Structure formats: C-alpha cells, structure tokens
Amino acid sequence: xxxxxxxxxxxxxxxxxxxxxxxxxxxxxxxxxxxxxxxxxxxxxxxxxxxxxxxxxxxxxxxxxxxxxxxxxxxxxxxxxxxxxxxxxxxxxxxxxxxxxxxxxxxxxxxxxxxxxxxxxxxxxxxxxxxxxxxxxxxxxxxxxxxxxxxxxxxxxxxxxxxxxxxxxxxxxxxxxxxxxxxxxxxxxxxxxxxxxxxxxxxxxxxxxxxxxxxxxxxxxxxxxxxxxxxxxxxxxxxxxxxxxxxxxxxxxxxxxxxxxxxxxxxxxxxxxxxxxxxxxxxxxxxxxxxxxxxxxxxxxxxxxxxxxxxxxxxxxxxxxxxxxxxxxxxxxxxxxxxxxxxxxxxxxxxxxxxxxxxxxxxxxxxxxxxxxxxxxxxxxxxxxxxxxxxxxxxxxxxxxxxxxxxxxxxxxxxxxxxxxxxxxxxxxxxxxxxxxxxxxxxxxxxxxxxxxxxxxxxxxxxxxxxxxxxxxxxxxxxxxxxxxxxxxxxxxxxxxxxxxxxxxxxxxxxxxxxxxxxxxxxxxxxxxxxxxxxxxxxxxxxxxxxxxxxxxxxxxxxxxxxxxxxxxxxxxxxxxxxxxxxxxxxxxxxxxxxxxxxxxxxxxxxxxxxxxxxxxxxxxxxxxxxxxxxxxxxxxxxxxxxxxxxxxxxxxxxxxxxxxxxxxxxxxxxxxxxxxxxxxxxxxxxxxxxxxxxxxxxxxxxxxxxxxxxxxxxxxxxxxxxxxxxxxxxxxxxxxxxxxxxxxxxxxxxxxxx
Length: 755
Hints:
Elements: H1 2-20, H2 38-51, H3 57-61, H4 79-90, H5 95-122, H6 125-136, H7 139-143, H8 148-151, H9 155-169, H10 173-188, H11 190-207, H12 213-244, H13 250-255, H14 290-306, H15 313-337, E1 342-345, E2 348-351, H16 356-372, H17 374-381, H18 385-400, E3 406-407, E4 410-411, H19 417-421, H20 437-453, H21 459-477, E5 501-505, H22 510-523, H23 537-547, E6 563-568, H24 576-582, E7 587-592, E8 596-601, E9 613-615, E10 619-622, E11 625-627, H25 629-632, E12 641-646, E13 652-669, E14 680-686, E15 693-699, H26 701-710, E16 716-733, E17 740-743, E18 745-750
Helix pairs in contact: 1-5, 2-4, 2-5, 2-22, 4-5, 5-6, 5-9, 5-20, 6-20, 6-21, 9-10, 10-11, 10-12, 11-18, 14-20, 15-16, 18-20, 23-26
C-alpha cells in the first residue's frame, strides 16, 4: 500500500512537471528549454558520457577546447544525470530527446524523494506532499531550469530520509541507501556534494547523541564508502585543476553570492512574482515561495509558544544577550546611516569605519541568545526534527550569502560561515555560494511539512487546507511561459572528413561556441570552440588573437593536423572573417553553401628551440631605467614587470648577461596574464649596448598558445634565435596593442661557442 501511494504521488508530480513545462513534451527532439547556452552544453555532455567510457583519458579530454586536455573537469561532468540519459540514447533516443526526458524526470524525482523524507518524519502524505511540491517546484529551482546539474537535487532528501530511517531502527540497509544517495549526489554535481556535507555535519551533531559511538562509526563508514566510490573522479578533477591552476577569484565568488534581498527576488518569468526580478543578477533569485515560508513561520511560532514553561537562569541570560544583540545592531545601523562618526567611551572607541563588525557581533549574540533559550535547549534534548530543520534553514541561507554578505552593496557581516568554508581548499573551485539556496529550500520544505503535521485540523477541513496550500505552493513557482528555442542548424558532416579538428568562426561568444560543440555530435571531430565553467589557459590568447585578426592566431591549434575552418555567414555579414581566413598563407577555400564557408588549413610546424643551458642575468632595464632582476628570475610569475600603459612601439626590455655568451633563445613567461603577450616581438642583440643587430621579428600569438598548452600556469613563451655571440639582448614591441606588456619570468638560453 505504501508503494502504491508513493507511485500515485510520483505520477501526480510527473503530470505537474509536464504541465509546468508545456509544450516541451510535444517537441522533445527539436527544442531545449530556456536558451541555447547551458541546455545545449548539457546535451553535448550527456552525449559524450553515452559514447565514451567514463574516467578514461579520452573521456577526460573531451571534444571541445581542442587541443587542450581535461575538458570534462572544466565543469560538472553530469555522470549522475547520465544514469538516465545514457540508457535512453542506447535505446535509440537522440541526444536532445534524452536530455529533455532527463530534465523532465528530475522534478518528480526531487519531489518524491522530498516527499519520502517528510513522510518518514511525519507519517502523513498530505504534509509530505507539501514538502515535495515546495522542494521540486520552488521558484528558485524553476528559475534554474537551464542548469540540469542544479535540478538534480533528489539525492539529498533521499540521503536524509535513509539516515532518519537508520536511526529509527538501526537497520544497516538504510546506510547502504544513504551511501548510494550520496554517490548519486556527487555524480550529479559537485556543488550539492560539497554543500550537503555541511548540512550532514549539522545533522549528525543534532540527531546522533555523543555517546552513540556505534551510530557515529556506522554513518562514518557509509560516508567513507561513498567517498571511496567518488575518489577516482575527485582525483581526476584535482589533477586537472592543479595543472591549470583553476581557482575562483574572490570577486567572482562575492558577485555570485546571495544578499539580504535575495529571498524576495525571483525570475522575471514567474507568473505571480515576476515583478520581484532583478534581471542583472540571475544567481540572486533565491525566492523560495511565499506559501511554504508562511507555513514554516506559523509552525515555528506555534511550536515556540507550546514550549513555554518555567524559565531558568539561562533564559534570563538569553534575554540580556538578545538585548545586547539589538544594541550592537543599532550601532551598526548608525554606522551605515550617519557615517562618518566616532565616539570614545571609557577608553573604548566606537566608529562608523566598519559597521559590519558590530553587526557580526550582533549576529553572534543573537545566535547565543537563541541557543540558550529553553525552547531550543528542549528541542535539542528531544532531538526535535522541527527544531533542526528550522535552524538548518537559517544556517544554509547564511551560507548562501557567501564570504561577504551584503545589503544594497554594503557588507553586513565579517567572517561569516562561508568565509570559513573557503579555507578548505576544495571550496576554491566553487564560484556560486548562492546555490546553497537549494539546501535552504530543502530544509524550509521539511520545516513546512513538520509544521503542517502539527496543525490541529482534521477531516475534510484538513484536506481542504492541504489542497489550498498545495495550490499556493504551485502558484508561487509557476511560470508564465517557458522559452523553447529551436536547435542550431547543422552543416553537412562530410565536410569534416580527414580533418584533425574543426574551428567555427566567429569564436568566443557563448552561444556560437556552444552551437559549435553541438554540431560536433554530428561530424564527430573535436572542436577548437568551447564553453564551460572554466576555460583553458590558451583560449584567452586565442580569442584575443582572433579578435585582432592576427595572422598567427591559428598556427598553434593546427600544429597537430589539418584544421577545418567553418565560417557562419549569418554571423559574418560584412565578410570580415571570410577575408581574414582567405589571407592566411596555409588556408585554402574548399567551398560554401547558402550559410557556411569552408576552408582547409594545413598543419603548422612549431619552430625548433635550442636546448642549451640557462644563462645568468646580471641586470635588466626598461625605458624608465633598471628594474629588479630578482622579480623576473625567482620562478614566481606573480612577481612581474609590466608597462604602465598599453603596448606601443618603442617599449623595450634590455637584458644584460654580464659577459658575452652564445645566445640561442629567450623565454618570457606571462603566467595568468594571457592577453598581455607581445603581439609583435622584436629581438636584437649587442656586445656593447651601442651597436645592435636584429635577430628576430615574430608574432607571438601561436608561441603563447603553445606555451599555455605546455604549461598552463607559467605560459613560458620560447623565442628561438640563430646562435649569436652577445652580452645584451633587447626585446621590443613592434606593434601597438590595447593590453599592457607583462613579463612574469625571463630567461636566456645559451649554447657553447664553436671551437
């Protein structure tokens, strides 16, 4: 009977999904939801997972950003979602159909797993349905319908439900279910795996009693087993991210964090709440829905009032601590409202310089006050699920605010929980703390279900109330219309026969690059274009060189075989790209059709660089005078030299070797400044710094890309020279550019003079 009931609810959730996304179900093979960016990327990744054995080197390297390696580690690999999409493709579904069916399956999966969690805690299907609807059809989740990996949050409620089942009966099979749920969560997205680990620690601290070593050991063993299964993927990500030096800049993490207005911000397509949208900041749309929030608040108030009893000394301390919190918050408010000001009181200086610090103290005091209150202490002593999920909602929301919580662009807290998490190295690859919102909504949904289960209403009135609340939850998440763009055009795949790779121009725009990746499923060749969470180092230089129509832009990507160049005439109305490619010496026109022009580019031959010894450098000078040699020879690309202006002819960097040596190469490292390479580098040598002999005039775009492919962190550009006796080597800019010239490291290679 339980299975029949759950099957019925799963069917109901499936019907709601089809209605919410209608008419997607009628066009499964010809459209994708929302836009042609992330959804098409998901289509391509699911296709790759179905046709290449996962975790092999070929699988890791992928099919985009050619000739860079490690593409699958640039973003989530979608192996969890492929558990649905791969069998569908093996049975004959197209990649697009498999993607759309997978997307449609994720909502009822999330709903039924959240339903199971709430049913485990309440024993009531009406309360569980409120949880399932609020979790699976929340405005936040529907607002991320283009992010398949973020829709796949069904593993987290399943893991929590199995843990509650385990504690209730100590049956080990529930730990197996828990471990499988954690594995599936990790396979679906790294975001939820890492974020869920925070919630899991809180869950254990609340529900598992300190003396229950058996339960702690058993849950720890299940976590360890799950981690062991996911370890090969983690090692692959770690290896590739370390090679490229992938980290998220602090400003990017802050920009993609929530703020205090996020809970009342939603997407513009919301039927009821679109007027709350902030179109310029899509990651900040964290609105969970008004109905579930109201249920949770009413339930929390009722629960709090029901625990009133005899107050003790800790309650009095709690009351005074709460008053202290209010005073500190008032000081912070004055700091923002009336700055600048300063008051010296009994040797203590209070000022408006950093109001987020007293506000942080106010938050700490408020937390202490709540923790000391008798209702919370009683809830913890009884291991109350309502108390836990209510408090966890607040903690998860606090984490979604990122390392620098804000209100109206003003920092409001100092060192919040997410700032502590960022000290854990693995969190350095996470760029959107705002996605903690999915865990916030999970905890809020469970809180709402637990609150509703306590309502003292029975019979027909309870059923009517439950139905009204379900309608309210769905209305909160309903959208006016779901955009369903049609798929990009596909050019005849036979054009790619015999080529090592394909590049489509123009390159660098998100939608153009994803369309090129989409067409790779047809012609089955790796593409130079690419889009992912991270970009390989060489891609920055490639985009810059192509935008400037540099004649050396494609030399590096064609060094491993013939390259097919495809130009989209709809994106090249003035024929600039066609003229540019026609001017390349190794490009030959193959033909064209109504929309595309095809060129073949023969392989390039990388220049030979001598393998001599590194010569000591006595001094270095630029146009302004001597510069610190140590900064350019300390094997640290971050201690760099740079021009104070954009590159212009006449910028010089002169190297003094201290004595005459036989020079055969110069190496410049640009490190992370991949756009700051010299466009045209002039190399002269001299024995006396008076009479100079020209040795090289070379466009360095290809050299920079080859350097980035060889060592993505150092990007050491090797400039080959004919062996020449010299003491001074002068490097100069031969062509102006819009970026400054940056050198992180410099070295000169020499060979023994001929006898």
